[in-house]
Specification:
540 residues, alpha/beta, Immunoglobulin-like, 6-stranded antiparallel beta sheet, binds alpha-L-arabinofuranose
Amino acid sequence: MKPLHNSQPGSPPPRSRAGARRPLLTGLAAHAAAPLAAAAPPAAAPAAAAILLRADTAGPVVNPNLYGHFAEHLGRCIYEGIWVGEDSPIPNTRGIRNDVVAALKNLNIPVLRWPGGCFADEYHWRDGIGPREKRPAMINTHWGAVVETNHFGTHEFLDLCEQIGAAPYVCGNVGSGTVQEMMEWVEYMTSDADSPLANLRRANGREQPWKLPYFGVGNESWGCGGGMTPEYYAGEYRRYSTFVKNYSGNKIHRIACGANGDDYHWTEVLMKNAGPRRMDGLSLHYYTLPTGNWRAKGSATDFDEPAYIATLANTLKMDALITRHAAIMDRHDPAGKVGLIIDEWGIWTDVEPGTNPGFLYQQNSLRDAILAALNFNIFHRHAARVTMANIAQTVNVLQAMILTDKEKMLLTPTYHVFEMYKVHQGAATLPLALSTPDYECDGKKIPALSATATRAPDGKIHLSLVNTAPAAPLALTCTLAGAPAKRVTGRLLTAPAVNSINTFEAPATVAPRPFHDATLAGGTLTLTLPQKSIVTLELE
Ligand code: AHR
């Protein structure tokens, strides 16, 4: 059974307990054009919202891989953010910084995509193996034209995956590499034979082959990965993927390069010409730009309320994108074998002033945390088809979990959403019917309430709630059908303003704290969901 959602913009505002229609969130218009500076706008009176949670009817399981990550050789993501080298004064294990590993381990990251991104289609894996001092350098032409030392290569990446407990997802080079190069890379990593390539790996210090469950055949082959048409790429995909083989019991899921946003033709051609017989996954890239304009994307921190609602409205487009790509996939693959793999998503703003434009370094605010939670709620709704998602990117690039400044490290608001939502990994989705007022500003409106619920294998129910409205709490009544819960606990993520951030001087401005304001009585949960907040509740 499909989850019920009637929270689309335009749905009627819910009735209050007295039966009268509640006005739309009040107080917002007064703040419409005001910059969202440090001070919190005064809270309006709570508006009523309601949820019917059908705990007696389980839907598809949330694939843990929806909480995947992406780390590219870009700016300070790999170098400094992850790799500092064995001789660094920053505490590290075999060159990989310990503080970052500890923070990432805490997220239960299921899968990590590497080495790109655009970088993948210029990457030649043989340059990144063997003694580091002998590895040839190259120029990272996409990202700042800086020198890439190749000190972080295959062994270092797979070591990182082992240190954080994530499955590797390697993206191969179709754009400027050969079929032979791709084939040999897979054999090098995964073969246990007494073969030249497996022996080369052994000579480089790794006796046992690695398990490599995911392999991407090119990245953005319509753009930086080769400027191909879908018809041409489908042919290339068939050729390259034929040689991405399973060695020594390793089972690779082959992931084809998918569409750029709403390019449905790309999905149609790939599904028709390559399809379920040849692929296990088809990717989709969609970035949220605050303005929707690549030339002036908007600031990560200095934005007003119209920019805030525009950003969230843009991110909610993910729902329609998935629906339409999935419908095409359903036609060609009714059995649902091919996963829709959203292996790049997140907010992309202008870089922080004064930083290298090629490094894509941006700050991260409460807005970004809300945006991440909205995307998770969407991914859960499409859990039958969307089997992996990889936020861009893990450290110091785009919507990062972690920012570093040499030896210093901070956790971003987005990190905290990944941490709060990890309870949903591997849990069964539960249908929800939502009744929500709209949050309106500047002629735009989006639902104020977004929610998702899952039942974990141990029987616990987790309900995650987002209130997008920056100044109006929601008085929420949640009817629990088929869940005789007796106890509720929760955590809340909010901050003084939607553009509140964590800094190296004040790293805990946006951090989760216990939420005690939910009560359970007679199968009904009631709470006031604070403005601009994310709450995850556990029901037992
Ligand atoms: O994540 C940054 C870049 O965005 C990636 O390299 C590329 O695939 C996409 O265009």
